[in-house]
Amino acid sequence: MADNDLMEAVLKHADIVSVISSYLPVTKKGRNHMCICPFHDDKNPSLNISKEKQIFKCFVCGEGGNAISFVSKFEKIPFRQAMKKVAEISGYEDPRLNENVVITPKDESKNRLYKAMGDLQAYYRYSLTIPEGEAARNYLQSRGLDGEIQERFGIGYAPKDGAKTIAYLGAKKHSLKVAEDAGIALNNGKDRFAGRISFALFSPQGQINGFSARRFQEGQEGGKYVNSPETPIFHKGENLYNYHHAVSASRIEGCCYLTEGFMDVIALYKAGIKSAVASMGTALTKEQVGLLKRLKCEIRLCLDGDGPGQEATLKTGRLLAQAGVPYRIVDYQGDLRDPDEILNQEGAEALVKRLNQLVQPFDFALSFYSKKSGSMDVGERRRIAEAFLPYLRQTPAGIEYEDLLNRIADATSFHKEAIREMAQGAAPKEMDRVDFVQGRVDRIHLHTDPELSKLIMAERALLHYMVNCPEALAFYKAQAIHFKGKPVHEEIAQYLVEYEASHPGSLDLSLLQGYIEENSDGQDGDTISELSALGLDENYPPLTKNTLGELLRTIVEENATLTAKAAVKSSLNTGSAAEQTKAIKALVEQKRRLQEEKKKKGA
Q1: Fold of the CATH domain 4-98
Q2: How far apart are CA 262 and CA 225, in angstroms?
Q3: Where are the domains of the chain?
Q4: 150 within 8 A of 140, measured Cβ to Cβ
Q5: Is the pLDDT of residue 89 over 60?
Q6: CA–CA separation, 566 vs 140, rounded Å?
Q7: Residue 571 and residue 495: Cα distance in Å, rounded?
Q8: Is 3.40.1360.10 the CATH number for 243-360?
Q9: pTM (2 d.p.)
Q10: Residue 206 has what pLDDT?
Q11: What one-character-per-residue DSSP string does 102-127 give?
């Protein structure tokens, strides 16, 4: 961790407008400055720069921060290195900037494994050019994988004599144990990938950490693919194929396609789409969802169009929705061909057209359950119907309402009048989040449940005033409030309290963001970006003496409602009939009390 005092000194001496101007043309607009955002494919200036607060924010792609974080993101360099750059641009000198940064040494044993993988990849690439590699070259050519594709995706050939491969690694000073630990050598001292075409697998940071080797000739033993086992540097569930390329490509294309396999990713690349990753045929893990979330773009699910593929799409969508990742789904329209087949049979234009036929998760779920309703029992169909009811209740009466009513009836095989009756009656399960039909996630107003949206908006409004008005932060501390609508809200609040304790009487957003960057080792980018949004959002009215009380009342009321809902949910799952009745009555009473208070306020 760098010296906080040094970081603050650099930021206080720097002017963010001058720093960003050294990289991009900046124009003044009102109180702030604007420029083309370099973090996404920006056509009109959308990066807001506040000279007053020394922060920047793009309200399109979400990036935000101070002068140091801008340089770090723009040049893709560590925070400490970016701090030195900002000092140079600003003409600030300090001997500490020239000191060597103390970095925790990497695990040397892992370094040896990465080095072995790099040397093995060079050997495989070379082996593709020798006479023995001719059959592999011919196969790759038949699949349309030319030299440029082979280079980009690290495709090579593992010679049949696996003992020679291990001997080559020995000549490069890699022991047999290293080859075994890296998942290269079998217990007979031979290469596990021998005689196959190799696809290099990369870590999210771009280091080769494994291989997947494909059978390409008739009569070859084993399955279609032989993959690296779990090793100290390779964990299948923590990697996505082609992710290291997608990180930058997704900023340009504004989206990223999630496919099932290598050839799908390569087919999209050949069609001109560079932002694509593959889960390599396994169910998405929370670590992989985290990688997708870090891309900060729309994810487009492009899994197989058959039954299992569509089931996987539904499950994957649920995971993305729960993590707050915006997504849509490629509409196969009954076509069971994979992207590689479409590309080879109809060309790039046809593939791109198919990939741009997108549906919202809600529409996909309706279609999916319509096809499955005949095989579901009454209980399952009722659960699905109840999950869709919040959407129906939020739709005004009219043609759209009747259309949605008919579609839900089709999806669940219930008569539409039965669905109408359910929608008009009390339905405690409506309180549950409908993760499997949740679609694009807004960074601020995030939920299907309108009452939870109300809580989130109240929390965010209070945070806005806490960031911009000292009296609001004092009010928050005095009331001992806890934010439950979004985790990032509570994180920001705690950082504000911590920062104020060491900087009483003042709040410098730029320094606070630097403080967060330093104390989270760069892992709190979402928090820093949200702070920029709170600091630059001008859609809130000036603070009055009644504002804080109103926001507190809303937060307390909404938290009480959430608690009542949780009690209902818990009792429905595990409680007795008496407990269920008690919980539902408490929720009804809470709603009645809130309605009465609203009437009094309106009177």
Answers
A1: DNA Primase; Chain A (3.90.580)
A2: 11
A3: 4-98, 108-231, 243-360, 364-437, 557-602
A4: yes
A5: yes
A6: 56
A7: 36
A8: yes
A9: 0.57
A10: 85
A11: --PPP-HHHHHHHHHHHHHHHHHHHH
